[in-house]
């Protein structure tokens, strides 16, 4: 087990969680059953400890221009109290991490990195802020921020957060906060309060459901966790671990770093070329020479060697990460290899196996019948659009 523990570690132990190492942290894998926790999020709500995620503040007069330079997205176009999904890439276009960037002030940004990549992202940002000879090229300050992050995900999330003792959604200036929880748009954030202290609430998520993330000072994490559990019990809220989080994000077709994304993969191969903004310009009107631009421009106009697709199982045996995708031969026999599964599992919501995989372009069309080599047996799958699941009304 890792020696890194979140402020909620003792709460997980008290709830009987099965703990595992993830991204260098000791985290709850499950509390009861994967299926029960998954279904609770789809039908009511789940409570997640996300305090292992990396939180990095970028502030200063050049913060927007710097993030345009360091990341592939047009961060300078993000409105106040809005958020943007983006990536930090290497010079060759490979993805170092996928990120969410929140603009929390006129010159203040909050970068959320994956737990295992936090040190890498922090180091890259610090390096990219420097110019030739190590001099500061951008007037910015970059710092990791110790904080706790608790998420409530599911169709009852808004009701639960509003019913939580000590939580006040309207405690700050409405002009600054954007109003109440109901007013908070998707991929936006707002300053609110809990127990009389400031928190930041974001309406983003990684489950395919509506929900909120609450950034709170570490010393308040236990109190907020317990208050949410108490408020959520009548609504069907349960604590949920990494296993349910993974199956939920898979159904929603959301990539996981280390599976669908890594340093050998560009955003275009992952079907996320939309996050790369070649049209962003600097203050003098010149194109922004962001890190990886040249390599990504060369990839943008050419067919990738592999394409990320969704696969729906036509049998009962699930595909798993690392399994070979093969042509479907006669009488169910396995043909030539055409790809590799990146994530796969039975879908509790849909009732059949689902997977994401990189395959060659010629077999990537919707409806293409393929197979996955599951322990020596060719299991039938068909290419389908992503995501596999959309919440009602979306």
From TrEMBL:
<keyword id="KW-0808">Transferase</keyword>
<dbReference type="Pfam" id="PF01571">
    <property type="entry name" value="GCV_T"/>
</dbReference>
<dbReference type="InterPro" id="IPR006223">
    <property type="entry name" value="GcvT"/>
</dbReference>
<protein>
    <recommendedName>
        <fullName>Aminomethyltransferase</fullName>
        <ecNumber>2.1.2.10</ecNumber>
    </recommendedName>
</protein>
<comment type="function">
    <text>The glycine cleavage system catalyzes the degradation of glycine.</text>
</comment>
<dbReference type="InterPro" id="IPR013977">
    <property type="entry name" value="GcvT_C"/>
</dbReference>
<dbReference type="InterPro" id="IPR022903">
    <property type="entry name" value="GcvT_bac"/>
</dbReference>
<comment type="similarity">
    <text>Belongs to the GcvT family.</text>
</comment>
<feature type="domain" description="GCVT N-terminal">
    <location>
        <begin position="8"/>
        <end position="280"/>
    </location>
</feature>
<comment type="subunit">
    <text>The glycine cleavage system is composed of four proteins: P, T, L and H.</text>
</comment>
<feature type="domain" description="Aminomethyltransferase C-terminal">
    <location>
        <begin position="306"/>
        <end position="389"/>
    </location>
</feature>
<dbReference type="InterPro" id="IPR006222">
    <property type="entry name" value="GCVT_N"/>
</dbReference>
<keyword id="KW-0032">Aminotransferase</keyword>
<dbReference type="InterPro" id="IPR027266">
    <property type="entry name" value="TrmE/GcvT-like"/>
</dbReference>
<dbReference type="Pfam" id="PF08669">
    <property type="entry name" value="GCV_T_C"/>
</dbReference>
<dbReference type="InterPro" id="IPR029043">
    <property type="entry name" value="GcvT/YgfZ_C"/>
</dbReference>
<dbReference type="InterPro" id="IPR028896">
    <property type="entry name" value="GcvT/YgfZ/DmdA"/>
</dbReference>
């Amino acid at each position: 087990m890792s020696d890194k523990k979140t402020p909620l570690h003792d709460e997980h132990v008290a709830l009987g969680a099965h703990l595992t190492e993830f991204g260098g942290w000791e985290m709850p894998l499950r509390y009861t059953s994967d299926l029960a926790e998954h279904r609770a999020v789809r039908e009511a709500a789940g409570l997640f400890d996300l305090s292992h995620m990396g939180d990095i503040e970028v502030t200063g007069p050049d913060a927007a221009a710097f993030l345009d330079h360091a990341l592939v997205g047009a961060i300078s176009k993000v409105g106040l109290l809005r958020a943007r999904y983006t990536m930090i890439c290497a010079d060759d276009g490979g993805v170092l991490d996928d990120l969410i960037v929140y603009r929390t002030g006129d010159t203040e940004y909050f970068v959320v990195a994956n737990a295992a990549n936090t040190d890498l992202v922090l180091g890259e940002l610090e390096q990219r802020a420097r110019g030739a000879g190590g001099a500061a090229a951008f007037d910015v300050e970059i710092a990791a921020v110790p904080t706790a992050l608790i998420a409530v995900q599911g169709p009852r999330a808004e009701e639960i957060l509003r019913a939580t003792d000590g939580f006040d959604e309207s405690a700050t200036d409405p002009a600054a906060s954007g109003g109440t929880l109901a007013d908070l748009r998707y991929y936006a954030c707002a300053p609110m309060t809990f127990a009389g202290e400031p928190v930041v609430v974001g309406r983003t998520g990684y489950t395919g459901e509506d929900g909120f993330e609450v950034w709170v000072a570490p010393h308040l994490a236990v109190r907020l966790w317990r208050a949410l559990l108490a408020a959520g019990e009548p609504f069907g809220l349960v604590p949920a671990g990494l296993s349910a989080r993974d199956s939920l994000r898979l159904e929603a077709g959301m990539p996981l770093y280390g599976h669908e994304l890594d340093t050998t993969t560009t955003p275009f191969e992952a079907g996320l070329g939309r996050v790369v903004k070649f049209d962003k310009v600097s203050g003098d009107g010149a194109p922004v020479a962001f890190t990886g631009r040249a390599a990504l421009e060369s990839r943008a106009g050419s067919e990738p060697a592999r394409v990320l697709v969704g696969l729906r199982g036509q049998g009962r045996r699930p595909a798993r990460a690392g399994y070979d995708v093969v042509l479907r031969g006669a009488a169910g026999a396995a043909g030539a290899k055409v790809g590799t599964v990146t994530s796969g599992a039975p879908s509790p919501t849909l009732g059949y196996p689902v997977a994401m995989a990189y395959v060659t372009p010629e077999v990537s069309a919707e409806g293409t019948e393929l197979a996955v080599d599951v322990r020596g047996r060719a299991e039938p799958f068909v290419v389908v659009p992503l995501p596999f699941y959309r919440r009602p009304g979306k």
